[in-house]
Specification:
This protein has about 210 residues and is an alpha/beta fold. Helix content is about 35%, strand content about 20%. The chain contains 7 helices and 8 strands. The strands form 2 sheets. It has a 6-stranded mixed β-sheet with strand order 3-2-4-7-6-8.
Length: about 210
C-alpha cells in the first residue's frame, strides 16, 4: 500500500505516482482472483458519490471493502473511531485493516500483504501502523518515544494512522481506549493512535522498514 499523506498540493511525487497507477490499471485488466483472505478492509470517507483513490485500486484488484461516513457534513478524522466501533461487532475476520480513502493506493494483489504481515510481524505484534518521516501533531514525549524505538534503524520512525492492520480480537479489546483517548488536535485522530501505540508497545508497532506500507 502506498500512502500519499500530507497536502495534495505539496506532494508532487504522490500525484505523479497516482497518475501512473491510474494509467496502468486503465490499460491492464487484473486477471487474478482478487479478494483478501481473512481480512476486512474498513474505510471512511466524507466524499459524496465520488469514487476515492483507494476505492479505484481496490476495485481493480477485486478487493471487497466496507465504507462508512460517506456524505457526512463537517467531517473530522476523529469521527472514524466512532464509525469503526459501531461496525466492529460485525467483523468476524481474523484481521481488520483501517485505511484512508483519498490518498492511498493498493499497488498489488492484497493477499501478498497479509502473507507479509504474518511472516514478519504477527508472531509478537497485534497491530501495525504505517510509518512516516514527520512527528505530527508535534508532541515531544511521543516523538522521543517513537524515535527511541525505531530511529536508529529508519528515518520512518513516526506513527501515521492513515493505514493500519490489526488482529481483530486485539482491536476489539482496545477499541475502548481508542474512543476514550483525546487528541490535542480536535480534527486529527493521529495523536490518539500514537498514544495507543505508546501504551501497548510492543503489541502495537510501526512498520518503520516500510515492508507493507
Amino acid at each position: 500500500i502506498f500512502h500519499m499523506n500530507g497536502s495534495y498540493l505539496k506532494n508532487p511525487q504522490g500525484r505523479r505516482l497516482r497518475t501512473r497507477v491510474f494509467d496502468y490499471i486503465k490499460a491492464h485488466e487484473y486477471e487474478g482472483e482478487g479478494g483478501i483472505r481473512d481480512t476486512t478492509y474498513f474505510i471512511c470517507t466524507s466524499y459524496g458519490g465520488r469514487e476515492t483513490t483507494l476505492e479505484r485500486t481496490l476495485k481493480h484488484f477485486k478487493v471487497p471493502y466496507v465504507m462508512k461516513g460517506r456524505g457526512t457534513e463537517n467531517w473530522r478524522n476523529t469521527m472514524k473511531a466512532g464509525l469503526l466501533a459501531e461496525y466492529l461487532p460485525n467483523i468476524d475476520t481474523k484481521y481488520t485493516m483501517g485505511i484512508d480513502s483519498h490518498d492511498v493506493c493498493l499497488l498489488r494483489d492484497a493477499n501478498v500483504m497479509i502473507d507479509a504481515f504474518e511472516n514478519d510481524f504477527a508472531g509478537d505484534c497485534d497491530m501495525l501502523f504505517n510509518a512516516e518521516l514527520i512527528s505530527y501533531p508535534p508532541n515531544p514525549k511521543l516523538s522521543t518515544f517513537e524515535r527511541g524505538i525505531y530511529g536508529e534503524e529508519s528515518p520512518f520512525c513516526y506513527l501515521n494512522s492513515g493505514v493500519w492492520i490489526a488482529k481483530t480480537d486485539f482491536l476489539k479489546a482496545v477499541i475502548g481506549d481508542i474512543l476514550e483517548i483525546r487528541s490535542s488536535r480536535p480534527r486529527s485522530d493521529q495523536e490518539i493512535y500514537r498514544k495507543l501505540h505508546k501504551k501497548y508497545y510492543p503489541k502495537i508497532k510501526i512498520d518503520h522498514r516500510c515492508k507493507l506500507f
